[in-house]
Each structure stands twice: as structure tokens, then as C-alpha cells.
Amino acid sequence: MTTDDTDPQPEHGADDPSAGRSHVLRAAERWLRQAGLRLVGYLVAAYLLIRLLPALREALEDLERPSWGWLVAVFALEIVSEMGFVVSWQAVVDPEGRLVREGGPRVDVRVAWAQLGAGMFIPGGSLSSVGAGTWLLHRLGMPLKSIAERQFSLSFLNTAVDALVLIAFGLALAVGLLPGERNPLLTVLPAGVAAVAIVLALLAAARLRRLGSDARESGHPRFAAAVATVGMAVEDTRRLLTHRSGVRSVLGALAYLFCDVLVLFFAFPAIRAPHAPSFGVVVLAYIIGALGGSIPLPAAVGAVGGMVGMFILYGIHRDTAVAAVVLYQAVGLIVPLIGGGIAYLLLRRDFAGSAAAEPSR
Predict the structure, then answer these.
(1) Which residues contact 249 (CB under 8 A, 6 or more apart)?
(2) Which of 34-38, 256-260, 332-336 is the most confident on average?
(3) What distance in Å separates the CA atoms of residue 59 and residue 304, rounded to the nearest whole number?
(4) pLDDT digits over 52-89, tens only?
(5) Which of 129-133, 184-188, 223-227, 293-297 is predicted with the least confidence, judged by mean pLDDT?
(6) How many C-beta atoms surround the C-beta of residue 291 within 10 A?
(7) Which label site among 89, 306, 307, 345 has the fewest CB atoms less than 10 Å from its CB?
């Protein structure tokens, strides 16, 4: 990973670290409150939608008689998934352990959980999480240029892992190595699109670096810095995936992905579904359908609709797909909310002195 310790420090709180920490606490508290409201909104919207549409009445019945043993399992898997993100975050965003040195033990873990919690209430998928994490780290005194590059690298790493897994599972289903759908339009085509996207990203990285250099020479330093940051982030992602030093971050990203997929996979027995899709089909429906989560729609409508639509294309009964995805999404909202809440309380304890010194507003 590239670093630049000469980057300018935050405009606010650079000379007074306690002020920056107080800003972080106030923002985290506000985000958690909004995250709780989003969770309530999602549950109410999902219930009313299923309740008011007679065609989805069976889905509601599935949700009303869950298997409690499987519910415990899916919550445990979601926690492991989020911890995978934290491991990857530590390796990519703060490899030097700067937060631990300056803020105390495990502050990096708590900030990572706070970033997860922030990402769940802002529409827009992972980009919202990147923005929230960047703001938190900037307030804690990390150079903005390094934060931006590393946050983009983390986001690109998770996207690249998704794409590589989509290619592997799409081809494995198509040739019969895994049980499930073999239709080339639903297996080979998504794998091919993912492969093309990876190639284009690598080509674009080199082009962006050249464009940044040209913009700097033509007197557009801000545009040059933004373009160069994205280009370097793509290059850093390539190094993480191909170099031995990136093993920890890649393993964290794989745990983040596959444990979350397992939450969706086991959501079917959790609702006592008579017919469940194979694991390979769940992987493809999860990755392709989750693209809808990048659309800034309220209550996770994009991700839910995308996954349900993919499951229907793969031959899963509509009511079963709706019930399983609604349960999966609820778990994915509850765990970051609780984890972010615990992280906030711990950060509040860590920064108690500086928060008390900050005048109330």
C-alpha cells in the first residue's frame, strides 16, 4: 500500500485531537439513531408489503414460523462475516496500527464497526460506508489522501473478490462441477461480464494514472489528485490479490463474502422452505442481485428486489425467495446496528476525557 505521511492534516481538530474525537462520538450517535430508524422502517415496509399483497401471503406465513436453531446460526454467521470485513479493513486501511498507537487498544476495530453501522443507513451500498469511514478517520487525524486511497482499495478489493467468485462459480455451474442451474445465460454470461469488467478496470487504472499526470501538468491539481487516487487504488487492489503481503486482507474479504452468502443460504431452512437452491445458485443470485443495493433506494429495496428477481430466474418459488431474502436483509441490518452500538459505547469510554472537555452545543 502506498502511504503519504506528508499529506495535510484535517482542517478541524488537527491541533486539538479531543475535538476531533468528540465530533466522531456525536456523528456515531447520530448514525446509530438513524440506523435504528432505518431498520424499523425496513421491517414495517416489508411486513406491510407482504401483508397487503395477497400473492405474497405464503411468504408471510414462512416468516411467522421460523426455525429458531437456524436463526441462531444465521446471526452467528453474519457476525463472522462482519468480523471478516474488520480484518480486511485493518490490513488495508490502517496497516501501520496508527489508530491503536494514538487512540488506544482496539480503536481500529471499533472504528471499522462504526463504519459498518454507518453504511447500513445511508442508501448507496458500499460507497456510503466508504464515505462514512473516510469522515471518521479524517476527524481522528489521518491524512485525507491516504484515507481516500485505502478506502477505495478496500472497496475495490471486495468488488474484485465478488467478481472472481462470480467467475469461478458461474463456470463451475455451467460445466456441472456444482449442482444447480446450467443455463449459459445465467452462468457463463455473468461470469463473462465479470471477467470483462476486471480487464477493463486494470486497463482503466493505467489510463487514470496517465490522465492524472496530464491534469497535474495542465494546472488542475485537485482533479489530478482525485484521478490518481482512484488509479492507485485499483493498482493497490491488484497487488493485494497477487502479492503475499495481501493474504490477510484477501482472507478477510473472502470471509466477509462467503459468511454473508451462507446467511442467505441458511435463510431457506430457517423459514422451513420445502425446496432450497444449491449453494452455487445462492452465490450467483447473491452477487448479481446485490448490485441492486448500489441504487440509492430506501429500505434496501434495490438489494431485496435484485436478489428475489435472480432467485425467481433460477427457478425458486416467488414466496420462498421473498421470505428468505427479507430474513437475510433483516439480519444484515440488525447485526451492524448492534455491533456499531457496542463500538460507539466503547469509543465513548475510550474518548471520555476528550468528550467531557468538549463544550456542549
Answers:
(1) 87, 88, 91, 92, 154, 157, 240
(2) 256-260
(3) 14
(4) 666 566 777 777 788 999 999 999 999 999 999 999 99
(5) 293-297
(6) 15
(7) 345
The stretch 273-283 carries a mean pLDDT of: 93
Name the phi and psi angles at 84, rounded to 5: -60, -40
pLDDT value at 15 more than 50 = no
Where do the structural domains in the chain lie, given as residue ranges? Answer: 17-351
d(CA 191, CA 179): 17
Contacts of residue 33, defined as CB under 8 A and 6 or more positions apart, other chains included, come to none
Of all residues in the chain, what percent are helix, strand and coil, respectively (each to 5)? 80, 0, 20
For the entire predicted model, the pTM comes to 0.81
Please give the grid coordinates belonging to residue 261.
452468502
Render pLDDT for 198-207 as a digit per residue (tens, 0 to 9).
Answer: 988 888 777 7
- Residue 124's region, left for phi above 0, alpha for psi from -120 to 50, else beta, is left
- Give yes or no for a contact between 321 and 308, defined as CB atoms under 8 angstroms apart: yes
H/E run at residue 271: none
**Percentage of residues in the chain with pLDDT exceeding 70?**
66
What pLDDT is recorded for position 122? Answer: 46
Query: How many CA atoms lie within 13 Å of 167's alpha carbon, on the beta-carbon side?
Result: 13
Cell numbers that stand for 117 in this block: 453501522
Specify the long-range contacts of residues 286-295, CB closer than 8 Å, at least 24 apart.
Answer: 286/260, 286/261, 287/162, 287/165, 287/166, 288/166, 288/190, 290/125, 290/162, 293/125, 294/124, 294/125, 294/126, 294/127, 295/123
Residue for cell digits 484535517?
10
Q: Which three cell numbers stand for residue 41?
A: 422502517
- Residue 350: Cβ within 10 Å count: 18
Question: How far is residue 284 CA from its own chain's centroid?
Answer: 17
State the residue for C-alpha cell 442451474.
181
**Cα separations in angstroms, 71 against 39, 76, 268, 331:** 18, 9, 10, 9
H-type alpha helices, 141-186: 144-175
